[in-house]
Structures are given as C-alpha cells and as structure tokens.
C-alpha cells in the first residue's frame, strides 16, 4: 500500500516537473494607456521612449501581456483604433487588419 502511494506521488509530480513551461496558460491581455502629453510618459510608462514615439505618431502606448507558467511576458508598442496593436519590439502587428 505504501509503495503504491509513493509511486503514485512520484508519477504525478514527475509529470509536473517535465511539463513545458513555455506553454501559454491564458489569452493575452492588451493594456492601452491614455497619453495626452510627452511629459506624462515619464510619470507612469514602463518604456517612456516607446510612449513618446507612439504619441508623436498619433497613437497610444500599449502593452500586450502573455501569461506563461514562469510568469508574464510583456510586449510594448502602440495602439490605434483602426489598426490595432503594433509591437515596437519585434516590429510586428497584431489586431484587426481589416477594420470596418
């Protein structure tokens, strides 16, 4: 009985240890921040230079947050209503490519 219990516990925890930690555990979250002046970027933006670049292009600073087992991963970029989120780290776009 004890041997079966011990083997069962090792079997369950063995699968947990070998699980892929790079697997996304939920849908990504898009945070869009309101910005009106470049001075505001210095106050709260995590990456002020990206915030100012978005503001100069007429867009808003945004973060796409993906959740993994080992923690969240943030992608910083700009957001504009017709085009969606545009990552400035990898220079890729996500969102609605064909707005109404």
Structure description:
It is a single chain. By secondary structure, the chain is of the alpha+beta class. It is 32% helix and 29% strand. A five-stranded antiparallel beta sheet has the order 1-2-3-4-5. A hairpin with a 2-residue loop joins strand 2 (60-68) and strand 3 (71-80). The model is unreliable at 12-19 and 91-100 (pLDDT under 50).
Provide keyphrases for this structure:
100 residues, alpha+beta, 5-stranded antiparallel beta sheet, 3 helices, 32% helix
Strand runs, count = 5
So how many helices?
Answer: 3
Shape: elongated
Give the neighbour order of strands across the main sheet: 1-2-3-4-5
Report how far the terminal alpha carbons are from each other: 65 Å
Give the helices and strands, then pairings.
Elements: H1 2-17, E1 29-32, H2 38-44, H3 48-56, E2 60-68, E3 71-80, E4 84-87, E5 93-94
Antiparallel strand pairs: 1-2, 2-3, 3-4, 4-5
Helix pairs in contact: 2-3
Task: Give a short overview.
The chain contains three helices and five strands; from the N terminus they run αβααββββ.
């Amino acid at each position: 009985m004890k041997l079966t219990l011990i083997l069962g516990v090792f079997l369950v925890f063995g699968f947990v240890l070998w699980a892929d930690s790079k697997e996304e555990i939920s849908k990504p979250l898009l945070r869009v921040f309101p910005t009106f002046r470049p001075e505001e970027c210095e106050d709260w933006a995590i990456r002020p230079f990206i915030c100012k670049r978005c503001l100069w292009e007429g867009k808003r600073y945004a973060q796409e947050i993906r959740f993994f087992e080992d923690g969240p991963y943030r992608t910083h970029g700009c957001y504009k209503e017709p085009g969606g989120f545009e990552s400035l780290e990898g220079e890729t776009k996500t969102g609605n490519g064909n707005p109404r």
